[in-house]
Amino acid sequence: MIDLRPILLVHGLLLSILALGMVIPGLVDLLHGNPDWLVFVTSSALTGFFGVSLFLATRGGQFRFSIRQAFLMTATIWVILPAFAALPFVLTDPGLSYTDAFFEAMSGITTTGSTVMTGLDLTPPGILLWRAILQWLGGIGIIIMALSVLPMLRVGGMQMFKVEAFETQEKVLPRAASLASALAVIYVVLTAAWTVMLYWADMSALDSVLHAMTTISTGGYSSKDASVGHFRSWAVDWIITAGMIVGAIPFLLYLQAVRGRPMALLRDTQVQWFLGTAVVGVAMVAWWLWQEGGMDALNALRYAAFNTVSVMTGTGYATADYWQWGGVVGGAPVAVLFCLMFVGGCAGSTSCGIKVFRFQILGAMAAIQLRRLLQPSGVFIPYYNKKPIQEGVAEAVMAFFFMYALSVAFLAMLLGMTGLDHVTAISGAATAISNVGPGLGDVIGPAGNFSTLPDTAKWLLSAGMLLGRLELFTVLVLLMPRFWRD
Amino acid sequence: MIDLRPILLVHGLLLSILALGMVIPGLVDLLHGNPDWLVFVTSSALTGFFGVSLFLATRGGQFRFSIRQAFLMTATIWVILPAFAALPFVLTDPGLSYTDAFFEAMSGITTTGSTVMTGLDLTPPGILLWRAILQWLGGIGIIIMALSVLPMLRVGGMQMFKVEAFETQEKVLPRAASLASALAVIYVVLTAAWTVMLYWADMSALDSVLHAMTTISTGGYSSKDASVGHFRSWAVDWIITAGMIVGAIPFLLYLQAVRGRPMALLRDTQVQWFLGTAVVGVAMVAWWLWQEGGMDALNALRYAAFNTVSVMTGTGYATADYWQWGGVVGGAPVAVLFCLMFVGGCAGSTSCGIKVFRFQILGAMAAIQLRRLLQPSGVFIPYYNKKPIQEGVAEAVMAFFFMYALSVAFLAMLLGMTGLDHVTAISGAATAISNVGPGLGDVIGPAGNFSTLPDTAKWLLSAGMLLGRLELFTVLVLLMPRFWRD
Ligand SMILES: [K+]
Ligand SMILES: [K+]
Predict the structure, then answer these.
(1) CB contact under 8 A, A413 and B335
(2) Range picked from A155-164, B47-56, B332-341 for highest mean pLDDT
(3) Residue A330: what pLDDT?
(4) At which positions is K(+) bound (chains A, B) (predicted)?
(5) B413, A372: Cβ pair inside 8 Å?
(6) Which percentage of chain B shows pLDDT scores above 70?
(7) Cβ(A360)–Cβ(B333) under 8 Å?
(8) Cβ atoms A227, A446 nearer than 8 A
(9) Cα dihedral sign for A305, A141, A146, A407?
(10) Residue B31 CB: number of other CB atoms within 10 A?
(11) Which residues from B are below 8 Å from A396, CB to CB?
(12) What confidence score (pLDDT) does residue A239 get?
């Protein structure tokens, strides 16, 4: 039997933090004279009661995790949190069904950004802020998880990103806490910087905060039905484009830069490949919009940069219904965007997807295969970031890639079984597992919305977001009978 | 410098065989009083002249291949043969452009079955027979190649299917030749059996031969614009369904069965997984057609079985515009078919795609990853067909899977750049590399045709067919500068 106490302790702790987070939109609604403030107080009280009770009931045991406990804790926390985070969406008037509310909360906390809410332009500020806070908390949550739990669990090659401070489980807890705090400070500073910039670009104070939060977390929830396209502003578009890139780069490198090693950021090959891929993708899309789409060069570059970076980093904002570009200029930009959707950003950032380092490792392995064909007896060592790849990492990355494809295919089939058309089913599966946000086509495309989907599809998509956010294996391992055996 | 003489010798030999093959449709046209017989005589003379000249000019050297020569020979032969096989399509009246003719010949010889020809119902028998012969020769060609050259080249894990008779390069040439002949006999016998069955099912003699040839080779060229749907026959549908399955099973197992080891066929796990996947896929599609599509149970089974097996084995026949099923019963059948398109059949058969054994190995590797997550220090050995997987095979298979995905994505982008819409671009790339035949959507779907595509797209698709048929790496290795260095 797995000892659940340390797991429940963490649940209690994080639910208490969530309850505190609910106070903020409550205050904002109170300031705006909106009756929703009561919704947030109620939700906060309920969540806080549960959280504190759990914490009190389980404290005092030893705070040490076996591998099984760590898996179970990681997977369940991302289900429990949205389960409570959904409360304000249910209790507000007109409220969402619990299915819709859970979907919205899961989509928030996994930084996916698919939404079932319509009429955002008329939605009270509290709810809009709550959606942004969920993505913002989810963003910092995943950054810390990618440095602490995931490398320890060796999920999908993440052991490569093991940090000394987290390396042993007991002794360095103070150092781990200080590292996590330092990362959180950087996260806060970046969010504040983007808030100021957006405010400077003539956004309202609330919109600036909201969009800064969902930009740095590559979450993509906007306060406008037309997403960032609503603002029709050069400055806003470029500021957010830069912010999405910042959110998709490993945050540990920012910390190293601040601590006097700025070159670490520039010398990291994952960052180089990420930026290189983004530049090539933007250039291709911009070229088509300019040459074939009838845009002038600067507008082509602006729309291409914003929407390409948004899809690649998995942010999911839109300033154009980019899936329609195919009809105008041929399928190339759509094909580019669809492929980039799977690439995602860097490991250790807020963005999801397969991630750039995995493509680097897969590329290195494929190159070695080619060389081995010519020299069957040759010995070839694959490199990542100028160091030999540790044993077991390549296999883990390749298994991840395979399971990613399999998961998208399987989820697409299940979604199709709920009656969705094949474009919605396939792109819905891809966008959920890659935590991007919008899908393809008329229903869930950048101009569409997830509200019309059947409830079963919403639960399936929520499961897909969880699967993608937790790098697949953290969830899949729980499905093994072996996991539950003694 | 690579010594080209043994390569050109094989080219000469195979071109001479191709020239002989051209005589057959010539004879048929002569019997039917069709002036095209002259086209075939001319083409045969031209091809034969080239082939015999090459052969005579290069014979006498030693018939032994280095690895580089074997790669170059394998890749070039599949370009030279369609280059000449295209001649009858150009010379007939009204003839095709050379681009169209090369596309049709490449699609034939790689057993892809994508066609640019319209009005098949009115096309003279010689040309129809020539298309079928190309697929039939391509089918036996790939069976022998998968047992001889590919394992030696260790392409994508094919070294697992090394056969003793082909093992060393020199001594056993007579045994290799006898094995190849035995396989060819089985191929001929199966084709004859299906010809008889189709004739019994009221097809004309010519149509029976044609369809038997393109069924066993999982090629999919039909003599009718409406493909096999033209015949509106229960018997024809089921006979061909069975034939496509027969064509997608390793032919070496038939040989072993004939030689007194029938259980080898049933005990082969690749065959078991192939049949199991096909049964599940057919059952799913049939269930939807029955429950949601308003078909009675028997018709649902018939249409599901035929079209699902056709897509999965990469044959590409159609008895329905199955991509339209999505609009009627939801996206599930389309999603199932789209996924099965990548699966393909068994290694050592005539069908293409990623192939079942690779999914078995990828699955075994993923399962080991899951177990390793729980027991980081455990030692796990992956198995295939109840034997431990040889060193290097898993890496080769995983690299293959990655390069497959990358190739489809890359080709889709290039196709999009020629102005194709994204459904045509993405499904066109998938159908070409998987050698299936029809794509998705209105343009190149089962009810469509490749004739309207721009010329650049046709050349790109031809390259994709070649890449897929030669298991990617045989072609990719030629792109390495290292290959050409001394
Ligand atoms: K997102
Ligand atoms: K085919």
Answers:
(1) yes
(2) B47-56
(3) 62
(4) 111-112, 219, 315, 435-436
(5) no
(6) 95
(7) no
(8) yes
(9) negative
(10) 11
(11) 369, 372
(12) 96
- Residue B296 domain-assigned? no
**Chain segment B75-100, per-residue pLDDT in tens:** 999 999 999 999 999 998 888 999 99
Which residue in A337, A373, A406 has the most chain B C-beta atoms within 10 A of its own C-beta, making it the best mutation to test that interface? Answer: A373
Residue B218 falls within a domain, yes or no?
yes
Domain, as residue range, for B42? 5-224
Read out DSSP for A451-465? GGS-HHHHHHHHHHH
What sign results for the dihedral spanned by CA atoms B232, B234, B239, B240? positive
* Distance from the alpha carbon of residue B437 to the mean position of ligand 2, in angstroms: 5
Sign of CA dihedral A144, A148, A153, A157: positive
C-alpha A467 to ligand 1 mean position (Å): 14
- The reply to whether residue A370 touches residue B476, judged by beta carbons under 8 angstroms, is yes
Specify burial of residue A69 (Cβ count, 10 A radius: 0-12, 13-18, 19+).
middle
pLDDT per residue over B315-344, tens digit each?
Answer: 988 888 777 776 555 667 888 888 888 899
The pLDDT score that the predictor gives to residue A191 is: 96
How much is the mean pLDDT over chain A? 88
Q: Would the CB atoms of B331 and A395 count as touching at under 8 Å?
A: no
Run of H or E including B384: strand B383-384
What is the predicted pLDDT for the residue at B170? Answer: 46
DSSP letters for A185-210: HHHHHHHHHHHHHHHHTT--HHHHHH
Contact indicator for B206, B129 with CB cutoff of 8 Å: yes
> What pLDDT score does A360 carry?
93
Smallest CA–CA distance from B67 into chain A, residue: A374
Q: Is residue B95 part of a domain?
A: yes
Query: Encoding tokens for residue A364?
Result: 């290195």
- Integer Cα distance of A52 and B213 in angstroms: 73
Long-range contacts of the stretch B178-184 (C-beta < 8 A, 24+): B179/B147, B179/B255, B180/B144, B180/B147, B180/B148, B182/B255, B183/B140, B183/B143, B183/B144, B183/B147, B183/B251, B183/B252, B183/B255, B184/B140, B184/B144
Give B354's contacts (C-beta < 8 A, 6+ positions apart). B342, B343, B344, B400, B401, B404, B434
User: By the 8 A CB rule, do B130 and B91 touch?
Assistant: no
> Between vectors from CA A128 to CA A124 and to CA A129, what angle results, nearest 5°?
115
If one counts the domains in chain A, the total is 1
Identity of residue B172: V
Which tens digit of pLDDT belongs to each residue from B17-42?
Answer: 999 999 999 999 999 888 889 999 99
Specify whether the CB–CB gap between B77 and B141 falls below 8 A.
no
Check: CB of residue B305 under 8 Å from CB of residue B282. Answer: yes
In a domain, B312, yes or no: no
ipTM of the complex: 0.90
- For residue A66, the number of C-alpha atoms closer than 13 Å in the C-beta half-sphere is 11
Percentage of chain B beyond pLDDT 90 is 50
